[in-house]
Amino acid sequence: SSGITQSTGIQNEVIFNNPYCKHTMESLNVSWEELHNSVARQKNAVENQILVRDSKGINEEQVKEMKSAFDHFDKNDDGRLDHFEFRACLVSLGYNVDTEEHLVNHAADTDRHSDFERVLQMVDPDMTGQVTFNAFMDFMTQEASDMDTAEQIIASFRVLAGDKRYITPEEIRRELPAHQAEYCIARMSPYEGHDAVPGSLDYMSFATALYGQSDL
């Protein structure tokens, strides 16, 4: 405590140079600030590495972008966003929450229940009015995982279809086991592109809906 008292006395007397010490108050403040910033950077880097490890389907650059967006809207720095802040955060990351399109980029649903409300049920199931960072990252990770899986399914169907944008029931039955083939055929919508042929099916919307919030 005597050291603290002496330090306070030195500051009160506006003494910045001590002939018995090579350091000055200014140099110590600069060194402390540099140390503080260095620790903060290392802490942030470690947190990002942990998030990348735990977030399948999201790379380090995406994690940084998501964390930066969350931190920007977390005005009181408590690790939570209210629903308005969460919505704004999603918009900043490129999600469209103001149209009839699905927020999570899935196929259209006849249910008129708000897409944003559906997402809130995922990130704030108890409707506390708050979205934690962990819930936010879980949602974003699931989004990336679903999108990757849908793209993989589309790529597989494209191969079966001979690189066409549609597939025929005959091609499906030829390439897949009977029960899988009939399942897909029964749930695929007719393909309506300009290059459509009679009976052609839309495997792209099927794959997207299959990993979205639908009744498939």
Helices, strands, pairings?
Blueprint: H1 2-12, H2 25-54, H3 60-73, E1 80-82, H4 83-92, H5 115-123, E2 130-132, H6 133-160, H7 169-175, H8 178-187, E3 189-190, E4 201-202, H9 203-210
Antiparallel strand pairs: 1-2, 3-4
Overview of this protein structure:
By secondary structure, this protein is mostly helical. It contains 9 helices and 4 strands, in the order αααβααβαααββα. It has helices at 2-12, 25-54, 60-73, 83-92, 115-123, 133-160, 169-175, 178-187, 203-210, and strands at 80-82, 130-132, 189-190, 201-202. α2 (25-54) packs across α3 (60-73) and α7 runs antiparallel to α8. The chain is elongated. The termini are far apart. 18% of the residues are buried.
Summarize the structure.
The protein is mainly alpha-helical and 216 residues long. It has nine helices and four strands.
Provide the β-strand percentage band: under 5%
Helix content: 55-70%
Shape: elongated
- Count of individual beta strands: 4
Give the oligomer, counting copies of the same chain as homo and different chains as hetero.
Answer: single chain
Note poorly predicted spans. Answer: 99-113
> Largest sheet, if any?
2 strands, antiparallel
Order of helices and strands: HHHEHHEHHHEEH
Mean pLDDT: 76
Task: Tag the structure with descriptive keywords.
mainly alpha, 9 helices, two-stranded antiparallel ribbon, elongated, about 220 residues
